[in-house]
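Title: Prediction job returns without error message
Component: structure pipeline
Severity: low
Priority: P3
Assignee: unassigned

Description:
Job completed but the reporter wants confirmation the result is attached to the right record. Sequence as submitted:
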Amino acid sequence: MRGAEKKVTNFFKKWQQRLKTADQKVAIHIYKWGGKRFRDRIMYLFSHIGYGYLYPVILLIIFYLDKGRARLLLPAGIVAFGLEVISQTLIKMKANRPRPFESLPEILNRMGAPDKWSFPSGHAAGAFLMATLGMHAYPGMSLYLYSFASAVGISRVYMGVHYPSDVMAGSLLGFISARLGLAIIF
């Protein structure tokens, strides 16, 4: 039995290393898209919007234009953001993953990072949380909402502050947090 356990452990270690290598290569590849002034500005804008300053404004606009849906979404959004922020903070503290610009010499920091740790992406989590809440209220807008959320996530890799796996984990965290917030409220 001991030999079988060792084989399984070695198998998973090899796959973990392969995934880490692929994650780093994709991060470097996306980062190298930079250097074009227009693209850099667009990516900076998406990344900056992902800080979440715009989310309360969006909710206020929805409240102004569609009070019925806003009254339903607001409590679900508060619960979802609470779940997301607590989960993200705990995961970041446990994972302690340095940001790409700190680990990979090919990547420089194109913008300030809100904290020290990379995994998971809080920007992606917030963007996908908002997209999921928005999809619940306005199903016809789901393609636009998730495209916007994806652009926020990609911009974080482009700016050199996250790996693709950070963005994927953050996206999943945001989606799950929103679904839980909706399930708790509805």
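Comment from assignee: result matches the submitted record. The chain has one domain: 2-185.
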